[in-house]
TrEMBL record:
UniProt-listed Pfam families: ThiF
InterPro entries with a match to the protein in the record: Nitroreductase-like, ThiF/MoeB/HesA, ThiF_NAD_FAD-bd, Ubiquitin-activating_enz
Gene3D superfamilies in UniProt: NAD(P)-binding Rossmann-like Domain (3.40.50.720), NADH Oxidase (3.40.109.10)
One GO BP annotation of this record: cyclic threonylcarbamoyladenosine biosynthetic process
CDD domains: E1_enzyme_family
Protein name, per record: THIF-type NAD/FAD binding fold domain-containing protein
Taxonomic classification: Bacteria, Bacillati, Actinomycetota, Actinomycetes, Mycobacteriales
Coiled-coil spans in chain: none
Span list, region Disordered: 692-718
Domain THIF-type NAD/FAD binding fold, chain residue ranges per copy: 85-244
Molecular function terms, GO-annotated: oxidoreductase activity; tRNA threonylcarbamoyladenosine dehydratase; ubiquitin-like modifier activating enzyme activity
Residue ranges with Low complexity bias: 695-710
Amino acid sequence: MQTAYTARVLDPTNPADNARLDELRADPDIDFLDDHEAQLESLRALRPAPAEELLREKPRWAYYPWRRAVVAVLGPRGFQALRLDRNRNNITAAEQTTLSALTIGVAGLSVGHVIAHTLAAQGLCGKLRLADFDHLELSNLNRVPATVFDLGINKAVVAARRIAELDPYLPVEVLDTGLNAETLDDFVKGLDIAVEECDSLDIKALLRIAARDRQIPVLMATSDRGIIDVERFDKEPERPILHGLLGDLDIGLLPGMTSREKIPHVLRHLEAERLSPRTAASLIEIDRSLSTWPQLASDVIIGAAAIAEAVRRIGLGEQLRSGRSRIDVNWALGQIHEPDMAHRYEPTTDEPNTPQALDGGPLEHLATAAMRAPSGGNTQPWQIALTEDSITVGIDPDHTSTMDLKFRGSAVALGAALLNIKIAAAEHHVLGPVTVTAAGSAPLQATMRITDDGNDPALAQLYQSMLARESNRHHGTPKPLDDATITALTDAAETHGARLQLLTQRGDIAQAATILAAADRVRFLTPRLHQEMISELRWPGDPDPDTGIDVRSLEFDPGEMAVLDVLRRPDVMEQLAEWDAGSALGDDMRDRVLASSALAVVTVTGNDLRAYATGGSAVEAVWIAAQQQGFGVQPVSPVFLYAQTATELEELSAPFATELAELQSEFNVLTQLRPGDSIALILRLAVAPPASLPSRRSTSRVQTSATTTTHPLSRGPW
C-alpha cells in the first residue's frame, strides 16, 4: 500500500465528496478543524478588495490521512489569493500566475526539503516532483525541518506531507526510489527546472546529462559559504556539465569508482581552495573523528533562498546566466560596520539662516530684493546685472528644468523678481522706468533704470512684507477666508495685470486635491522629473546650500523624513511605474491641499513669456497680501502647469501624457480658466506657524559693473 503524502480535497457540493465527508465525520478518530470564517474574513480584508465571485467561492475540506484530520479551507482561487497575498509586490499577482505554470523537480530531500518547501511557500511553481530513496533519521534533524514523528519515513514523503499541509491544492509527485537509471527519465520528463541536491557524484552527473539532453536548467545549492550553481542548459545546450569542473572524466566510470577514487573529482567540483576552513578541515576528519561532512540548518536555509530567487528569475524570463556564486554570511558579518548616517533627519536647533544679502547702496538693495523672489525648487533661474544706473534680471537658460517648458516657469520667477525690484526701488526712492525684452542668450529680461526721485507709496509700503515673504510648507489648518481677505487678494492680482480664481469651497478643494495628488504621482514615476525633483533637495552639510530646498523646510516629522529616503530612490519609482502603482505618492500633496483654507490660482491672458512674467509679478503680490492677512503660503506646481499642447505633455512624461491631459482639463474646468488664459502659479493658503527655515539665496547670480552703463546681460551667453 502506497504511503499517503497528499491531501484529498473534498467539495461538499460534489455528491461523492460529500458522502466521503459523512464517512469521515462518523469516524470518532478523525478530527474536523473549521477555521473557514476566519479565512473568509481575512480574504475580505485584502487590498484591493477581492472580486465578489471570489468571496462567494464555496469552501473545501482537506483530508490528511497521516494526521487523521480534516481541515476547512477556502476554495482554490480564494486560498491562493489569501495565502500568497503577502508576496505582493515582491512577486506580483501577474508574476505569480506565470510562475504557477512551472513544474520543478527536486532530487535529494535532505537539503532539498527546505528548498522544495520554500518553492511551495512562495508559490514559485504549479507542480513539484520530489525524488529520494532514503528515510529520515534522527541525525537529519539538524537541518531538515521535520520532527521525531517523521523518523523512519521516506524523506520525499516527509517533504510532500509538509507541503500538503502548507497548500493542499499544490500537486506533488514522489519518487520514493530516488534517482537511478530506471527512474531518471520519469523524473526529468516535463520539468521546467531541475534542482539537484544528491550526495552521489555519479547521480549528479547523470541528472545533468539527462537535463541537458532536454534543455532543462539545473540549479544546486551547496551548504558551504552559500554556494549556488546555475547551469542554463535551456540557453546553452552544449554546455559541459558541472561547469566543466570534472574535466575529461568519463562519466560512465563514476558508478564503478570507490569513494577514495572519487575524492579528486569531488574536490575539483567543490573548488577545494575556496571551501571554508572548518569545512575543509572537516573533510580530512571524515571516517576518523567525523562520520560525514558537516551541514548546518542556517546554510541550508540560505541555499534555499538562493534557489528560490534563481527559480523566480528563470520562471519570469529575467536575466540569470550560468555559473557559480557565493552568499557567504560569515564573510558578510566580518564586514559589519556602522550604518550610513548621511541624510539622517535631525530637527534643527540652530537659529534660522538669514537669506544672503548684498552690501552697498540702493542698487545692491534692489538686487537683494530680486534674489528674494520665489522660483520653482528655489533654482533661482536668473542672472542679475548691476550698472551705475540700472539693474537687469534675465532668465538664465542654464537653470531650467523639464517642467519649465519654454522657460515659462522661469518667466514667472523673473516677474516676481521684477516686482520685488520695484518694491525695493520705491522704498529707496529710486523707482524708474522698466523695459522688458529678449536679449543675448536670455529668453526674457527686464531692466529698470533708477532715478533720483522715483516714488510709489503703495509699493513702498509692501517692502517689509516682501522681505518677510516665505514658502510655508506646514500643513496648517483650513480657516475660511473672510471677505476682506478675498478682496485684498483679488485686488493684488488685478493691480498687477492678472486674474485670481480662489477655490474656497470644501468640495472644490477636495477635487483639486485629487487632481494635484495624481499629478504628483506622475512626477514621482517619471524618471527625469523625479531626478530633477530630488536634485532640488538639500540636506544639512550638502554642497550648494544657497539654492534648492532644505529638507528641514518641508516640515516633515521624523517618520516622514525616513520615508523620504525611499521616495528619493529612482529604482523604487521605476518599480512602481512598472506596476502602475504608487497612488500613495500623492498622499502628501492631497493632505496639504485638504488642509488649505483656499487655493489661489493666478492666471494671465496669453501664453508668451511676457504674459507669464506679468503673472509672476501678480503671484508675488498675492503671496505678500496673503501673508499680510495671516496666512501661510506654499506654491503648488503640478506637472502639467506650463504645458500648452499635447506635444508638450508628451515631452513632460510620454507614458503619462494622456493622464496629464485629463488632469489638466479637469483642473482648468474647476478653476474656470478662460480660453486664451494661462495659469502662472497655484498658491496654497492655510493658517500655519512660521516656516522652520527661510529659503537661502545665491549671490553668485549677481554681476556688478560700476564703471559702465553697458548691460552685461546683453553681451551674449552668461
